[in-house]
Structures are given as C-alpha cells and as structure tokens.
UniProtKB/TrEMBL annotation:
Biological processes, Gene Ontology terms: Golgi to plasma membrane transport; intracellular protein transport; vesicle tethering involved in exocytosis
Entry GO terms, CC: exocyst; plasma membrane
Disordered: annotated segments: 260-280
UniProt keyword terms in alphabetical order: Coiled coil, Exocytosis, Transport
Protein function: Component of the exocyst complex involved in the docking of exocytic vesicles with fusion sites on the plasma membrane.
Name this protein carries in UniProt: Exocyst complex component
Domain Exocyst complex subunit EXOC6/Sec15 C-terminal positions: 421-770
Keyword Coiled coil applies: yes
Residues making up the signal peptide according to the UniProt record: none
InterPro entries: EXOC6/Sec15 (IPR007225), EXOC6/Sec15_C (IPR046361), EXOC6/Sec15_C_dom1 (IPR042045), EXOC6_Sec15_N (IPR048359), EXOC6PINT-1/Sec15/Tip20_C_dom2 (IPR042044)
Similarity annotation: Belongs to the SEC15 family.
Length: 815
C-alpha cells in the first residue's frame, strides 16, 4: 500500500518536472535550450517526457489551425486588393519610364555644359591656389638667391642675417614643400661654411697684425717722440735761461751739453731716424695701417650664431700665443740698438692693437685680460732687458738703450699702461751704466797716467798759460809774476784728469734725463757715481801707477804734488755739480764728494811707496856690506858701501824740495830708522856667531858716518838732534861695548835717566855671547903662552859674570 503511495507520489513529481521543462522550452531562446534538454536526458523518464512533448505539439497545432481559420477571409480580401494595385502600378511605371526618357534626352546637353563648367571652375581654383603658393615661395627663393650672392661676394655677416630671416620668417610658411626641406637641411651647412670662412678671415687678420706689429709700434713711438719734441721745445728756453747764474767754467760747457743732449739731437743716439719733413707730417694710427673689419665681422657672426664665447676664447688664446712670440727677444738683441728697437716696436704694436680692439669692440677683450697680458709682457720684457743689457759694455749703447726704453715707456703710458716698473728697471740699468762708464773711464785714466811724463808743465807764452788755467782751476800769484818760460808745479795728467771727471759727470747727467727724477735725486745719483769714479776707478788707477815696479822716486814725488793739487780742486767739482743740478750743497741729505779722501789716500800711498822705495834702496846698499867680523885691525874710515849709501840719500833728499815739508821729513826719518834697524840686524845676525872688538870698532865708524849724515840736516825742518835719535839704540849699544862700561849699565839699569837706557839686556847678552865665543876660540889657539892665559881667563870670567847678571835681568823682567 505504502509502495503504491510512494509510486504515485513519484509520478506526480515527474509530471510536474516535465511540465516545468516544457514551459522552459517554450519560453527559452533556442540557443539556451541545451541545458534544459540535458536535464531531460539525465533523468529516467525521457519516454514519458516525449509523450508529453508530442501531446503539447498537437495542442499547439490545433490552436494554429483555429487561428488561421479565423483570419482566412481577411487574407483573401487583401490579396484581391493587391492584384488591383499591381495593374495601376504598372501603368505608373510606364509613365515614369517615359517621362525619364524624355528628361534624359532633354538634359543631356545641360549635363555636358555643367561638366565643362565644373572642369573650368576646378582649373580656376587650381590656378588660384598655385598662384598663392608661388607667392609664398617666391620670397623664399629670392632670399635664398640673395644668400647665395652674398656668400659668393664674401659678405658673410649680411649673409648670416639673410639666413636668419630665411629660416625664421619665410621657410616656416612653406615648410611642407620638398625644396624647402632641402633648404632647411642645408642651413646648418651654410652656417658652418660662414663660420669657417669668417674664421679664415680672422686667421688672416691675426697674421696681418702679427706682421704689422713692428710698423704699428714704430708709428706709435714716432707719435710719442713728436709729442716729446713739442713738449721739450716749449720747456727748452726756460731750462737754458735758468743757468745764467752758473760758474763761468761750468755753464758754458753745460749749455753746450744741453744742446747736444736735447731731444732735437735724439736721432744722434739712434732712437728715431726720421727725416725733418716726416716730422711735419701726420703719423698714421693703427687703424690706418691695419684693416680691423675681419675681426669685427667674425665677432658679429659668432655672436649671431651663439658662439661668441668660443670666438672670444679663440681670439684671446691666439693673441696670447702671439704675445709670447713677440716677447721672446732675439739672441743677438744686445749687439745693436736696432735689435732693441725692433723688439720694442713689436711689443708696442701688439698692445696698440689690443687697446684699439678694447675700445672698438664690446667684450671681445676686457681690461682684466689686457692687464694680465701687460703684466706678463712687463715681467718678460724686464727680464729680457736685464739679461741682454748686462752684456752691454759700451756706455753709449747703454745710454741709447735708456733713451729707447724711456720712449717705449712713454708710448705705452699714453695708452694707459702702467710703466713704473720700467722706470724702476731703468734705475737698475743706471747702475750698470755707471759701471760701464767706470770701466771706460778706467781705461781713460790709465791712458792718461801711462802717457804722462811726470814732469811740471812748461809754458812759454801767456796763451799757453791761460789754456792750462782754463782747463784746471789753479791760482798762484807768485807763479803769475814769474817771467816766461815758467813751469806749473803739476804735470799734464792733473788738468786731463780734472776734465775727464767733468766729462764723467756730463755722461751721468745724460742718463738722468727724462727719467722723471727730481733735481735732488739727479744730484744724488751724479754725486754717488762721481764718488765711485773717485774712490774706486781713479783711486785704483793711481794705486796701480804708484805700485808699478819700475816707478822712480821722481815720479812718486810728482804724483804727490799732483794729487795735492787735485785734492784742492774738489771744491770746484762740488760747485760744478751744484751748477748743473741746481741743488745747493747745504741741502739735507746731499751726498758729499769723497775726492779729498781719494787724493789723500793716493798721496799717502805714494808717500808710503817713497818710504818703501827708499828702504829697498837702502837694503840694496846693505847687501853690499862685507864686514870681517873676526878682524883684529882697527880701521880709520867708514865702509865704502855706507859712504855710497849716504851719498845716494843726500842726492835723493835734494829732490824732495817740492814736497810738503812733513813728507820729506817723514821720508828722511823713515830712511834713517830703517838704516839703523838694518845695521842692528847685521850686528845681531844669527849667522855671525863670533865677533871681535876690532870689527865692532869698524862698525862703530860706520854708525858715526850715519850720525854725521843725520847731523848735517839733509831735510830742513828737524829740531836739533831729532834725526840722530834714529841711531840712538846703536850708539848706546856700541858705547857700552867699546867703553866696556858694564858696571854703570848694571848699576843704573831700570832708572829713567840712566846712560844706557836704550840698550836691551837681550841685545847686550846676544852681542856679549858672540864676543865671548871669539875670546874662547882665541884662548884655545894661544894656550902655549901661559902669561896670556891668565889674562884671558880673567876676562872670560868677567864676561861670564856679566852674562849671568844680564840673564838675571832678563828673567826678572819677564817675571
């Protein structure tokens, strides 16, 4: 039962499911019916489902049939009406076809005319468009043609402007055309071509100014020279007029010197070789000698191209290289003034060009760049001048070089370059100039001293007398009163040396001109240089003459007289310098001339040489001395050599009459002292080990001859027995031994008024030992005579006793 209920329930569920599936099939799209059908086949009741499906299809067919039967009559009526309309439609079609045929026939000509009109309008529109495009393209082509013409005629800056207009104004309007694209692609090449061509022009310009630097510098220095000439012409008359109160012997020569050293005669020194007619002409400037347009064009071109900085760096780099080449002096520059002139011309030309570029361009070069170049040039120029000027041994060349450097500095100063270092270097060259002058004047003095006859200057007429007095400031009333012929006390080298000193002062003055120095500085420079001339050059020349081996006493005497007069002339040299510098000697810090000291030193050297010469002559006579120290004979006259020596001294001192009294007295005293000392050395010579009293007697005769010479007064001015004091040591020693007065000597020794005050115990002991040796030797030879042995023994004992006491005196003195 229950099973039957369950089966009934399952059939109901299956029927409901089948119904649902059918509804779903009816309402679902055909494309989505697959899952529904699958659910049927997944079940086990598909047979029953098919039955139900068939049943449902039959029901729907019956419904369709009912509906068709219901609407059939309306369908038949519609078909009938449609058949009627088809006939009318055929008629209408025929009418439309006929009308169309007629219309086509009638409108055929109009269509042809309209087609022709259309074609004409199209052509007209094309022509108008073409004209418009050509009007846009023509300016481009004209500008391009203009660009080519400008390139061909090398008008590169206008070409660059044209290219700029073409690129930014015209080409953008027709950029879609192919030929415009070609032009656009060609524009960078044209720019590079313009840059290359303008750079080539710049290189030609740089080469041109390198070649023309010499000429430009020469022109600038001519302009500076002309300006200096004009300035000096204005100042020249007051300068000469200010000298009217000078000393007679100074201002005449100085006026002449001004004329010879004025700027008018500058060409004589080799600075400028300009004809007179050229001085009147206007000297061209740098812009007249060099075409600066290439650098201006190139600067504008690179500025337009945006490469101005590149151009400035290139220009400055190339000019720096050229500056280094210009500043490299030739190795032989020091040989001639032309070498220096060419060197200076190139430097001036270089900086004149740079100054012109500085003032005619904006920023191509600036003041800092110019100052840097000038600092480099200044240091290299000064170094080169220091090196090359050191080779100059000709003072004239050094003077010309100084004038050239001054002109060089003045020229560059006009263009605003600082030149103080050049003038400082000129002060260094001034020292070198002084050295070359000193070397030159050393030769001049040497020639004067070598050629002098060292004899007083004889004059036979008033004219000759005035000539000598005009050359040398000398006044002697007594000499003026003497009749002709007469003699000046000095020899010819005195006026010659005096005039050469003045010439040296003139040479120093020449160098000081145009150095922008004050009168005090010029005066100080001249005085210092003159002092060097006096204390070094002239002094050395005099010393060399005085120390000459073959110089005689006569020449030495004349040198003393000459230096005495030159010493007196120093005050005139002081006045001479004062006259040409207008600086009073009383001015603070004024350097004094050392001429007095120089001539005093020379005179003292000559005096010393006289003393030395006399002593050498005495030594030569003494070398002829041939004493027999062992003789027992007693002589009765002085030795021959000493007689000759005394005769020589008498004749020599007779020549000393023109010497100052003190010099003659000193020479005589020196000779006597040297003679006394030499005789004492002969007596005490170590080689003479034995000495007899007879030899001592002969030596005493010679000393008496010397004393007689001293008493005779060979040189006036000595008081009583002053000259004899030179032989007092010998006299007391000889008296002690000849008189054998040992008791008095030993008793009075050490007292201030003793008889043998000048006898030294050492000297006495040395001489006593020599006599003792001789007596011992004689005693041994005479030992056969007994009666003599005792006397000799007693005397020897006395000698030993005296010697012992002398040794005691010596030891007590040392203790």
């Amino acid at each position: 039962m229950e099973r039957g209920k369950m089966a009934e329930a399952e059939s109901l569920e299956t029927a409901a499911e089948h119904e649902r599936i059918l509804r779903e099939i009816e309402s679902t799209d055909t494309a989505c019916i697959g899952p529904t059908l699958r659910s049927v086949y997944d079940g086990e009741e598909h047979g029953r489902f098919m039955e139900k499906l068939e049943t449902r299809i039959r029901n729907h067919d019956r419904e369709i049939e009912k509906m068709c039967n219901f609407h059939y009559q309306g369908f038949v009526d519609s078909i009938t009406e449609l058949l009627k309309v088809r006939g009318e439609a055929q008629k209408l079609k025929n009418q439309v076809t006929d009308t169309n045929r007629k219309l086509q026939h009638e409108g055929k000509e109009l269509v042809i005319a309209m087609e022709e009109l259309k074609q004409c309008r199209l052509q007209q529109r094309n022509i108008s468009a073409t004209v418009d495009k050509l009007m846009l393209c023509l300016p481009v082509l004209e500008m391009y043609s203009k660009l080519r013409d400008q390139m061909k005629t090398k008008r590169h800056y206008p070409a660059l402007k044209t290219l700029e207009h073409l690129e930014h104004t015209y080409l953008p309007q027709v950029s879609h055309y192919r030929f415009c694209k070609v032009m656009v692609d060609n524009i960078p090449k044209l720019r590079e071509e313009i840059k290359d061509v303008s750079m080539s022009d710049l290189k030609d310009f740089l080469e041109s100014i390198r070649k023309h630097s010499d000429k430009i510098g020469e022109t600038a220095m001519k302009q500076a020279q002309q300006q200096r000439n004009l300035d000096n012409i204005v100042l020249q008359q007051p300068r000469i007029g200010s000298k009217r109160k000078s000393k007679k012997d100074a201002y005449i020569i100085f006026d002449t010197e001004i004329e010879s050293t004025s700027p008018k005669s500058e060409q004589d020194s080799g600075i400028l070789d300009v004809e007179d007619e050229e001085d009147d002409e206007e000297v061209p400037g740098a812009q007249d000698l060099v075409d600066f347009s290439p650098v201006y064009r190139c600067l504008h071109i690179y500025s337009v191209l945006g490469a101005r900085e590149t151009f400035e760096n290139y220009y400055r780099k190339q000019r720096r290289k050229q500056a280094r080449l210009v500043l490299q002096p030739p190795s032989n520059m020091h040989e001639t003034l032309d070498g220096y002139r060419k060197y200076f011309n190139q430097i001036v030309g270089f900086f004149v060009v740079e100054d012109h570029i500085l003032h005619t361009t904006q920023g191509l070069v600036n003041r800092a760049y110019i100052d840097e170049l000038w600092e480099m040039a200044l240091s290299k120029t000064i170094a080169a001048l220091r090196t090359h000027s050191s080779y100059c041994s000709d003072p004239n060349l050094v003077l010309d070089l100084k004038n050239l450097i001054v002109l060089f500095a003045d020229t560059l100063q006009v263009y605003g370059f600082p030149v103080n270092q050049l003038f400082d270097m000129l002060l260094e060259i001034r020292d070198q100039y002084s050295e070359t002058l000193l070397k030159k004047w050393a030769g001049v003095f040497r020639n004067i001293l070598d050629s002098d006859n060292y004899s007083p200057i004889p004059v036979t007429s008033e004219e000759m007398y005035k000539k000598v007095v005009g050359q040398f400031p000398f006044q002697d009333i007594e000499l003026e009163k003497q009749p002709f012929p007469k003699k000046f006390p000095f020899s010819e080298f005195v006026p010659k040396v005096y005039n050469q000193i003045k010439e040296f002062i003139y040479a120093c003055l020449k160098f000081s001109e145009d150095l922008h120095l004050s009168s005090t500085e010029i005066d100080d420079m001249i005085r210092k240089s003159t002092n060097l001339l006096l204390t070094r050059t002239l002094s050395n020349s005099l010393q060399n003459v005085i120390k000459r081996k073959n110089i005689g006493l006569t020449e030495l005497v004349q040198i003393i007289i000459n230096t005495t007069h030159l010493e007196k002339s120093c005050k005139y040299l002081e006045e001479f310098i004062t006259n040409i510098t207008n600086v009073l000697p009383e001015t603070v810090h004024t350097t004094k001339l050392y001429g007095t000291t120089t001539f005093k030193d020379a005179r003292h050297a000559a005096e010393e040489e006289i003393y030395t010469n006399l002593n050498q002559k005495i030594d030569q006579f003494l070398q002829l001395a041939d004493y027999d120290w062992m003789t027992g004979d007693l002589g009765n006259k002085a030795s021959d050599y000493l007689v000759d020596l005394i005769a020589f001294l008498r004749s020599t001192f007779a020549v000393f009459t023109h010497l100052p009294g003190k010099v003659a007295q000193t020479a005589c005293m020196s000779a006597c002292k040297h003679l006394a000392t030499s005789l004492m050395q002969l007596l005490l010579e170590a080689e003479v080990r034995q000495l007899t009293l007879g030899a001592l007697q002969q030596f005493n005769l010679d000393v008496r001859e010397c004393e007689q010479f001293a008493r005779s007064g060979p040189v006036p001015g000595f008081q009583e027995d002053t000259l004899q004091l030179a032989f007092i040591d010998l006299r007391q020693l000889l008296d002690l031994f000849i008189q054998w007065d040992w008791s008095t000597y030993l008793a009075d020794y050490g007292q201030p008024n003793c008889k043998y005050l000048r006898v030294n115990p050492v000297t006495a002991l040395t001489l006593l030992e020599k006599i003792s040796r001789e007596m011992k030797d004689t005693s041994r030879k005479n030992n056969m005579f007994a009666q003599f042995r005792k006397n000799e023994r007693d005397k020897q004992k006395l000698i030993d006793t005296v010697a012992k006491q002398l040794r005691g005196l010596i030891s007590s003195h040392h203790s």
